[in-house]
Amino acid sequence: MPTVAVDKADLWERLGQEFTTEEFDVLCFEYGLELDEDTTEEVEEAKKKGLPTERPQLKIEIPANRYDLLCIEGIARNLRTFLGKAKAPTYKLVYPPGGENDLLTVTIDAETQKIRPLFACAILRNITFTPQSYASFIDLQDKLHQNICRRRQLVAIGTHDLDTVQGPFRYEARPPKDIKFAPLNKETEYTAEELMTVYESDKQLSKYLHIIRDSPVYPIIYDAKDRVLSMPPIINSNHSKITLNTKNVFIDVTATDKTKLDIVVNIVATMFSEYCAEPFTIEPVKIISHTGEPSITPDISPRKTVAHTSYINSCTGLSLTTAEVVPLLKKMTLDANAATDDSSKDSINVTIPCTRPDILHECDIMEDAAIAYGFNNLPHTFPATATVGQPSAISKLSDIIRIEWALAGWVEVLPLTLCSLEENFDYLNHTDKKWTSTAVRIANPKTLEFQVVRTTLLPGLLKTVRENRSHTLPVKIFETGDIVVQDRTRERQARNIRHAGVVIHGVLDRAMKMLEVPRIRSDDYEKDTGYYLKETEDPAYFPGRAATIYYRPPPTKHTHLSDLKHKLEATLHTNARRDIELGTLGVLHPSVLEKFEIGYPCSAVEFSLEPFKKEMQKIWTNDV
Predict the structure, then answer these.
(1) Per-residue pLDDT averaged across 473-496, rounded?
(2) CB under 8 A, 24+ apart: contacts of 77-82
(3) Is residue 96 pLDDT above 80, yes or no?
(4) Looking at the predicted structure, is the pLDDT value of residue 287 above 90?
(5) What is the DSSP-derived secondary structure letter of residue 240?
(6) 281: helix, coil or strand?
(7) pLDDT tens digit sequence for 392-420
(8) How many CA atoms lie less than 13 Å away from 86 in the CB half-sphere?
(9) Burial code of 236-247, b = ≥16 C-beta within 10 A, e = fewer?
(10) Backbone angle region of 597, left / alpha / beta, with phi > 0 → left and psi within -120 to 50 → alpha
């Protein structure tokens, strides 16, 4: 969750009250926040030593979906409402004297559809910045960029001094060689291609270059005199930069996600509209889309929904009336009133401000009511139903294997479930389609290390050996964990299979002994149950040094008829048809060891535990 640092004295002034650290910690907890740190003591210590220091700060941990709390303005506004010191503000759009005809316009070029197709903006008129509010304005943009904007990939924000540019504006996409301007805090003009080189070594901006670097066109915003305002999502123009003396702020937001676009432009505009000459007013802008359709942004109209007192009471264990619930919701900045058309007096009309995009469902309204009432004040009740949990059959079986192998001197390891395609297939020489076709692949992997859900335990075990190859030999490690394969018969299109894997032989017989599965010959057709080995060819193992493990499950019932049937199958050698392929064991191929950077011979065994689990009721299993 994001952490916001606010000036302590400034916050006390906004709240109209001073708190001790303990009191403010309690207030934060009651509201659903967490006071992470109060730097007052550190500041005092630094002052005693004569060291330069900032004013005391409070570092507050914010819920990830409460974008309205990412700055001191939002925190103070919400806490004042929560404490009953002020009503929730009403945000409104204020048009120029000439109405909609006098609105500034932004025309979107069709080429932008190739790179960042969505655009929104807003204007804050007659704003007055202080050093603290200016710093908060910049910090909010950074917090949003790192949070909902996903490091500018989904949304990017630009802010400009409106008095330095002239509308109407144009949002275009041009080849990088055709774009030239002086970027923020630089006097020299560069082409967009040159800027990619200039900012490669910049600690802050270099991490955003990849977003548009390989695109044939870069997004760019121009004013009526062809002066650049911004090249989103990388950098603003130096010409339009805002300062402490800026009076009119133009906010541009570009995006690839419409929902996040609307949230971001609303949060930035509403949070700092309190500094306008007429607080909480925003001037809209007319957007002309690439198809010629006009629209007005930002859309700060509140959403309306209905909550029910009975639902809130059922979730919280309270017995509140509608009249008692309404003020609780108002404490959380939700405008609420009892529905007049409901004879049962159970319905509540709730108006959700544009600053609360986290309210998605009636359960969110219920949560706000519970916060306002106080979680510590909720009654303690015993659940109406009593249930008894139990481990799944496969987990019980896994624990038996784990304990036995650990007692035998093997060390359990816990590698990651995700791995790269190379490690899962190429490194094991499993390049044939019969291995690769069943894998569950990640659609948008963030790194090359996490591209596929493992289909075997071997990559994790061998990577563990690689990282511990300096240890004395033998390295004796094991793992019991799930692999995942595609299964089109399931609703989720995939299936987990519990495997057990060991590097170094000697534990297969131990495991089978504990499972009471005898060793039999592959040609011993009279045996009811048991396991046996058959030579196999697997590219992961040395030729002639690999075997497949087979398991013959016992008959489900023993009757006179079933015994006769078993004898007949044994005579005809047909009972081997029910033998299950459990897994493989062998000496790993030198090329596999080389790819995992292991410099000595290594043996491995891996097999499925699924056939040994006991039958359980379907409700306790994961087989649906």
Answers:
(1) 88
(2) 77/274, 77/333, 78/31, 78/333, 79/15, 79/27, 79/31, 80/14, 80/15, 80/16, 81/330, 81/331, 81/332, 81/333, 82/30, 82/31, 82/331, 82/332, 82/372
(3) yes
(4) yes
(5) T
(6) strand
(7) 888 888 998 899 889 888 899 999 999 99
(8) 11
(9) bbbbbebeeebb
(10) left
- Tokens (6 digits) for 369: 């009511």
* DSSP calls for 486-521: E-TTSTTSEEEEEEEEEESSSSHHHHHHHTT--B--
373 touches 318 (CB < 8 A): yes
CA distance 537 to 547: 8
Alpha helices in 103-183 (DSSP H): 131-146
Closest by Cα among 135, 101, 172 to 6: 135
| C-alpha–C-alpha distance, residues 611 and 579, integer Å | 11
The residues that bridge with 530 in the sheet, in sequence order, are: 552
pLDDT tens readout for residues 11-54? 999 999 999 999 999 999 999 999 998 888 888 888 888 888 88
Token duo for residue 92: 């409104």
**What's the burial of 216, exposed, middle or buried (CB within 10 Å: 0-12/13-18/19+)?**
exposed
Report the C-alpha gap between 34 and 295 in whole angstroms: 40
Length of the chain, please? 624
Instruction: Give the chain's mean pLDDT.
Output: 88
Q: Can you give the pTM of this predicted structure?
A: 0.69
Helix (H, G, I), strand (E, B) or coil at 534: strand
Provide, rounded to the nearest whole percent, the portion of the chain with pLDDT above 90: 51
Q: Amino acid identity, residue 76?
A: A
pLDDT confidence of 559, banded at 50, 70, 90?
A: low
Q: What is the pLDDT of residues 361-370, one digit of tens each?
A: 999 999 999 9
- Spatial CA neighbour of 483 closest among 426, 422, 424: 424
The token pair at 367 is 């949560």
pLDDT at 278: 92
Helix (H) or strand (E) holding 478: strand 477-486
Least confident of 46-55, 111-120, 135-144, 593-602: 46-55
Given a cut of 90, whether residue 79 has pLDDT beyond it is: yes
Q: What is the pLDDT of residue 2?
A: 82
What span, in angstroms and rounded, lies between the C-alpha atoms of 370 and 268?
A: 28
Does position 536 have pLDDT exceeding 80, yes or no? Answer: yes
Mean pLDDT of 339-368: 90
Amino acid 82: pLDDT: 92
3-state secondary structure of 141: helix
Q: Is the pLDDT of residue 434 over 70?
A: yes
Instruction: Spell out the alpha helix ranges (H) of 234-343.
Output: 258-272, 309-316, 322-331
- Cα(293)–Cα(167) distance, integer angstroms: 19
482 vs 224: CA distance, rounded Å: 61
Burial of residue 180 (number of CB atoms within 10 Å: 0-12, 13-18, 19+): middle
110 phi-psi bin (left φ>0, alpha ψ -120 to 50, beta other): alpha
Q: Which two tokens stand for residue 8?
A: 């302590």
Distance CA 24, CA 181 (A): 48
Q: 169-174 and 218-222 as β-strands: parallel, antiparallel, unpaired?
A: antiparallel
Cα–Cα distance for residue pair 339/323, rounded to 1 Å: 11
User: What would you report as the CA-atom Rg of the chain, rounded to the nearest whole angstrom?
Assistant: 33
